[in-house]
Amino acid sequence: MQVWNQQNPSAQLTANFTLAFLTATSNKGHGKLTGGAFFLALEHLNANQSDDNIRLHFDYVFKDTMNMDTMAMRAMVDTHCDKNNVSVFIGPPDFCSNAAVLATSFDIPYMSYDCNEMHSLTRNMSDYLIINEEPSGIYVSKFIVSVLQGFGWKSFWLVGGAEGVTNVWADTTNILNSLATSHGLTLNGINREPLNDAYHSSKTSSHNPYPDIINNSTRKTRVYVFLGDYNALVDFVRALHDRTGSARGEYVVVALDDTKQQRNNKTSFLRIDETNRNVTSNDLEVFRNVLLLRSLQPTTEQKDFAKLVYEYNYQDPINLTKGIISAVPKLRQEAFYIYDAVMHYGEAVRQLIKLGQDPYNGQNVVNTLRSTYRKSIQGFNVYINDRGESEGTYALMSVASDRSGKLLPWMWPVGNFNVSSYNGSANYSPGDKTIAWINGKPNHEPQCGFDGAKCENKDKPWEHPLMIAGLVLSLVLAVGAAFLIFRHVLYEQRLDRLSWKIEFSAIELLDAGQVRQMISPGRPRKKVQSRWKAFLGSTDMAMASEQERERKLRKESLLGAAGIKVGVYRGSHVAVRMVVRKHVEVNRALKKALMMRKEMNHENINRFIGACIDLPRVYIVSQFCSRHSLQDILKNEDSPLDDMFITSLVQDLYKGMTFIHDSEFGYHGNLKSSKCLVDSRWVLKINDFGVGALMARTCLSPVFRATSLLWRAPELLRTGIPPPQGSQKGDVYSFAIILYELYGRRGPWGDTKLSNSDIVRRLRTEDYTKQASVPPFRPDTSVLQVKAGVVPLIHECWHPDPDQRPDFKNTIRLKLKPLQQGLLKSNIIDNMLAMMEKHAQNLEVVVAERTEQLSMEKRMTENLLLRMLPRSVAELLKHGQPVAPEQYDQVSIYFSDIVGFTELSAQSTPMQIVDMLNDLYTCFDSIVENYDVYKVETIGDAYMVVSGLPLRNGMRHAGEIASMSLHVLAAVTTFRIRHRPDATLKIRIGIHTGPCCAGVVGLKMPRYCLFGDTVNTASRLETTGEALKIHCSQECRDILEVLGGYHLIQRGLIDMKGKGKKMTYFLLSEDTSQRMRRISEERLSPGGWREQRCVSASNMDYNGKIFFMENGTVRKLSGDHYSRHQHLELSNDSAGCNHVTRHSLSSIASSGASGTVTSPSNSQNGAGVFEELAEMQCLLDNTRTKTVPATRSSLSMFSRDGLETHL
User: If you placed Cys at 632, which of 68, 337, 628, 1124 could pair as Cys (CB 3.0 to 4.6 Å)?
Assistant: First the structure.
């Protein structure tokens, strides 16, 4: 935060300000189209230096909020915390409630330019440091009152928003109610309608509330004030026009147009689809007595301003891509608000400086802008009230007309408002355009009042003879009409009493588990608990398996089949299909079709149970088939479709189609494999016909529509508007495609290279006559390996001439009989049992394959976890035990990094750096495997290792880290960089001993992490160390002295950041024999640490092998061999050959650091000596890689007695 220092008033004042511009240029944000206004305003602000005594400079910081609330808040925090000295936030848009709270906490003003949610702030808006340049519709009330007073309307009916929806229109309704009362206006009535806030199309819905509102209010008012969504206003105005009829001219509607108008579409206020039809006079008549308050449009030269804004849009950082059209696109309204926000802020800070106040104080800036008029780039002044919101400036709009009174398809301004600079009140003044009233300006009430009490002539109507005659005639006509209506109602009630009408509340939808239990009602399944649950957590497990559960849910509850779910209705399992329809006309024809479909009963027809029409949703309830559709079965490679299964399914299909063709429906019209369902008994049932008016989809993608037409006959495709039910010959063609799909199992058109759209296009354009020599375009039947009669039957069924195709009842039935011989038995029960037996055998094979796949995945999961965490921690997780953080009294930590890594990175490519680090860390990892240590992590060029956890190892941790450090340092001296072979790699190493805490941290990519001051001290030792040296702390050195065998020199007191001065040492070398004696002693001691090491079994130092000689054979030492031993030494001569030398026990003390191995006397060759000597040689080779001063590296191991004597 910058601090304002008041300078000498006589001297020139200079100040710098940084504006943080936050907008969304990606993820469908509008910043690409409006962001240039910020940079245009910034240029004008820096250029406007009219006052010579004040020189201001305005800079900026830009952030892309990506149209997400989290990114917007992060952008505000980043710009504030990155030491940019941000003076003001210009944006972010849309998330202004949270942004206002955050900006206020930073004491930085927030200039919003696209905000409609300030009502959600928990406190008064004046408590936050926000200025909203976008006008809020909540302040339109004073303009509406001004309109009512200007036209002399003293009473009105208010249709507003309801509480608890969005509260935007509810607040405006409350303010208008209170303001009208204070100005002496009478509120005849009020309706609070939730549809005004949360609007969806209700024109054809039975729940449209506006006709009832109008019926209840037309006898009580003539003036309506409508506050709500503009689409809801359109429905209200149309309902008023329909209900009032010829008296429409007596009513007027005053409303707010809250939409951001498209200036290139003048007729958008009518909300009609102009692509399908032109605007008619009837469309305009509906809006004739409608007065709209619309935000005043900018008077600035649009093309010049838009051109300048888009010039900046095409530049960095907005980087809008130029289109092919050279014309400047239409400018969005937000661009004006962005420009005003920048300019108003500049005016405010200049005004504060002149007054001698702090311009960097957010409260000062906000207070300067509130309750003031400010000039706008739009060409007029805007008023910012005491809450910091722009109240906007409006114009009164009406339908335009020419001199002859003919209505024109646009609206023009018929009045303006003068806003008082003293109290902000609005006064209406008529414009130069006329209003095209229907019958002149309406009055706010009839001449005699709504009840006729104001008329002096109070004669009663029934006293006039003509009126009495009219009443009698009307009564007779009413009785006759009532009789006819009564007969019609009785007939309609008969239709409405049919069982097809279902209440959705009577259906109980099942979840995936219930569906599985229903399909496979065997013994109850045990709930399997994952052994990693304690580690992963319920949230991550849910996220990890979300896609898998969704896949299973779709399969088991039929969600993948056009939105079908499984439920229970009156004790029976049913399939419930939901179809979204904006409008369904439940007429007599549809009711009759539903009744017929309900009464159809056949073994191969899927039973239609009923329908629930609850717009915009329609639920179709039918019999549930557990094996889904024939299409699903064909796609499943595990399905057992042999000749017997296929023949049985084909027989069911033609039986069902024969029944449909003989019924009153006569056709199916949309026959395909997805409409053929299979129940648990493998019986095929035909579905989805007869109720096409309910299930027809109006919005299908071209790809999905082309796929759905692959089964349709060519003559129906060529018809512009095919009959909804199709035709019988069209069903026969679809039957042929299904036969091909059944026998080929490669889809309805096989392995064709054509897309579905290309197939449909060729079928539509096919011009085939009876004499054509070229065969018709059909799927390739040469790939089918079937009985002789199948392919000819398929060709006959998809014959290009519909009249040549066979029918189901006679021809197809006769041609299918030979195909069924030898496959289907005469007994239905025998057929069913045979089919079920084959299906069960196939399931056994599938279950075995899935079980093996599951076992393999389980092993892969466990191996992956063992690579991420120590084995002891992984074992706890495998047994379902929680891994709690643990405190360790003493551990040793190793840190190293590469000297000059930054310079090396600058001179190398990223891939070369990655290859170098991979080679180096691979070398380090191979060394780490030889010690009782645990590799914690690598960060860039830093390498971190610890010893003494997760399994404690006494005081050995310091020795393990020290020995490993010497080994690493020796390996680095011979390491060569691939892309720079002549360069020498140098590292710094720091080691330290102390307490720490360790545990598993995180759920995403979890790590076993260390915490404590010991970690920081080890890191400081590494950073203050020298190249190719091991920097050791006093604590670590003390333990190494106790262990013995390590050579260190004192470096002196070193000043470490945050630690003060500390005495440190350099580790030079080690005595290998001391380390080996330690290892042997701990291995031979009771309760040794053989099985407690934390590294892998490839560590040669800890492979658990102690060697001795018995009866001439080299053996591994066990617990029974603690008596007499001799000393066995393995070494290499100058030629590289191995030699074995025996020494007596007395030579142990004299050998010292030479490195010897004890063994019994009695030397002679044995059967296993070479195998064991080879293992010992591997151990010696590993030891020779360490940097030690001895001239000879060898391995010494002692018995318990021998070791005690030596110590």
Answer: 628
**φ and ψ of 914, to 5 deg:** -65, -45
Confidence of residue 602 (pLDDT cuts 50, 70, 90): very high
Segment 308-365, tens digit of pLDDT: 999 999 999 998 888 755 667 778 888 999 999 999 999 999 999 988 899 999 999 9
Residue type, 733: Y
Reduced DSSP (H G I as helix, E B as strand, rest coil) percent helix, strand, coil of the chain, to 5:
40, 20, 40
d(CA 264, CA 261) in angstroms, rounded, equals: 9
Nearest to 894 by CA among 962, 810, 970: 962
pLDDT in tens, 612-652: 988 888 899 999 998 889 999 888 877 767 777 888 899 89
Domains of the chain: 13-135+303-391 (3.40.50.2300), 139-257+263-296+395-430 (3.40.50.2300), 508-518+561-825 (1.10.510.10), 886-1082 (3.30.70.1230)
Sheet bearing 252-257, strands edge to edge = 186-192, 155-160, 223-226, 252-257, 290-295, 394-401, 407-419, 426-430
Specify which residues 1115 forms β-bridges with. Answer: 1108
Assigned token pair, 168? 């935007």
The Cα-based distances of 1 to 18, 79, 87 in angstroms read 10, 11, 8
Structure-block tokens of residue 585: 């006309």
Contacts of 297 (CB under 8 A, 6+ apart): 261, 263, 378, 395
Beta 110-112 vs 130-132: how paired, if at all? parallel
pLDDT higher than threshold 50 for residue 1143 = no
Sign of torsion, CA 826 830 834 836?
A: positive
- The string over 386-423, giving b where at least 16 C-beta atoms fall within 10 Å of a residue's C-beta and e elsewhere, is ebbbbbbbbbbbbbbbeeeeebebbbbbbbbbebeeee
**What's the CA gap between 400 and 411, in Å, rounded?**
5
pLDDT band at 1105 (very low <50, low <70, confident <90, very high): very low
Query: SS3 for 647?
Result: helix
Q: Are 1088 and 1106 in contact (CB under 8 A)?
A: no
Question: For residue 1162, what are the CA distances in angstroms to 508, 554, 1151, 1166?
Answer: 88, 77, 21, 12
Reduced to 3 states (helix: H, G, I; strand: E, B; else coil), residue 462 is helix
Q: Which of 108-112, 243-247, 532-536 has the lowest mean pLDDT?
A: 532-536
For residue 667, give the nearest of 590, 723, 600, 586 by alpha carbon.
Answer: 723
Select from 676, 666, 813, 794 the least CA-distant residue to 728: 666
- CA dist 587 and 565 (Å) reads 27
| DSSP states along 856-899 | HHHHHHHHHHHHHS-HHHHHHHHTT-----EEEEEEEEEEEEET
CA atoms within 13 A on the CB side of 1181: 11
**What per-residue confidence (pLDDT) applies to 722?**
53
The residue with tokens 């993608």 is: 701
| Residue 736 clears pLDDT 50, i.e. is over it | yes
Tokens of 377: 């780039």
DSSP string, 475-490: HHHHHHHHHHHHHHHH
Instruction: Tell how strand 1138-1143 and strand 1127-1132 pair up.
Output: antiparallel
Contact criterion met (CB below 8 Å) for 224 and 153: no
pLDDT of residue 167: 66
DSSP string, 546-561: HHHHHHHHHHHTTTTT
Question: Of 149, 135, 96, 46, which is closest to residue 380 (Cα–Cα)?
Answer: 135
Q: Interior CA angle at 269 toward 264 and 270, to 5°?
A: 115
Percentage of the chain beyond pLDDT 90 is 29
- Say how far apart CA 743 and CA 503 lie, in whole Å: 42
Place of tokens 């088991």: 556
As a whole number of Å, the end-to-end CA separation of the chain is 68
The conformation of residue 268, written as its DSSP 8-state character, comes to G
